[in-house]
Amino acid sequence: MTQQDRKNFLPGYFDSPWPVECGGNRRQKAANGGLYARDGVATSTLQRNDRWNVMAIRRAVGEVYIAGTMPAWSGSEPYGWLERININTLEPISESPQLPSGGHVWCGAIAAHANGDIYKVNGCYMHRLSPDCSVIKEKRLPVDQAHNGLLILSDGTIITKDLRLSGQGKSTITRLSPDSLDIIGEPMALPEGSMGRIASDQTSNGEFIYIPGIEHVWRIRVDGENMVLDHEWAPQYRTEGGNQGLSWDGCISEGHLWIMDNGDIDSLRAIYSVHPNGRFDAPSNRLSWRRPAPWSGPQRLLKLSLISGDITEIVPFGTPGGGIIAPPVYVPEYGTCITWDSINGGLAGIKNDDEGLEVAWRLDARPTMQPIVFPETGELVINDFKDNQDYLIVVDIGSGKIIDRVATGSTLANGMFLTAGGHRDVYYCSTFSIARVQWN
Questions:
Q1: Taking Cα atoms as reference points, which of 173, 250, 171, 172 lies closest to residue 214?
Q2: Which of 165, 64, 57 minimizes the C-alpha distance to 109?
Q3: Based on C-alpha coordinates, what's the Rg of the chain?
Q4: Tell me, what CATH number does 247's domain have?
Q5: Overall pTM surpassing 0.85 (yes/no)
């Protein structure tokens, strides 16, 4: 898989290097160029806004949009928002009105469409917004549950999914028209609930959507306006009631889907134990990702064949009660998958070859976020939460050595997204603050 291949798999999106979370539907989190952090000095610009900042995307040249929700766990009504920001100061240039979420507090997502507009899912609402952040269309989704992410398919239609944990019923995949936000066909109820965000891939055999469920990973074939569940491919990655937690999103690369389990940590279970999701009668003491895991199993990395469904797994750290709040990334140029354990600490590079999976290196770090990789320069960028401060570390993918460490200024870490800025810079989103780190 080359960088050009990655760039070209963006039909349906605005012509941008990073128009959607993770840089594309395969969730490979790969950016062109590099930070060249070995030869640079980093500066960090922080903006505190007291919001739950979820992700930044890029639209036209010089345009960066940030979106999120309000961390209104109790009290005032929650809402979503979208901002276009100054790429240097991070100050807003334009901002949406308050966007209803149906009362749910959850991170949601945004994407820049080929038609030039921004689409945002937040709670149980989908919005279409203009480049100046004005609302064009608003749609309440058919399922009254917080939705976890959105992607744009190759025909420009919008796909989204509601989030459910064990024992909370079946999740639903909803597909919408980009023009009217009308629902296309019948929403599809999955055989299980689903926590992780969806990934998709367009191949010579068709376009497919991959969804991690409670016990299985599911695949849907996009057939015109229809979505068809593939009953012959549904690998089982865990057993309900076992010692492992649920999977977050998958990374599609080299004929496999790469996932980590142990994601439904105690804070997430608290958020989804109430309805509307994330709304409590009084402030909750369960909202920290540092709380012990509700299972005894260690963190696992799993490699699922997209042909046979066969699963290869590795336990990179072996510490009981592992847990994460973000998924892995596979870097084909290095034959390496990046994995970590947020609860216990630990970052690892897992070598993938004909002999199987093997730990190539480990680092003493505590990542929580969706990282970025720069294959051309061999750089991995991820956070490291240490001494109640959140840092960005740049790691050599081949050796596992830390190239640079930069303080973001944020005192809170979460599982949100890093975005490549295109000027040897990275945009960082967390609770209560955003930051831009640039190397010169």
A1: 171
A2: 57
A3: 20
A4: 2.140.10.10
A5: yes
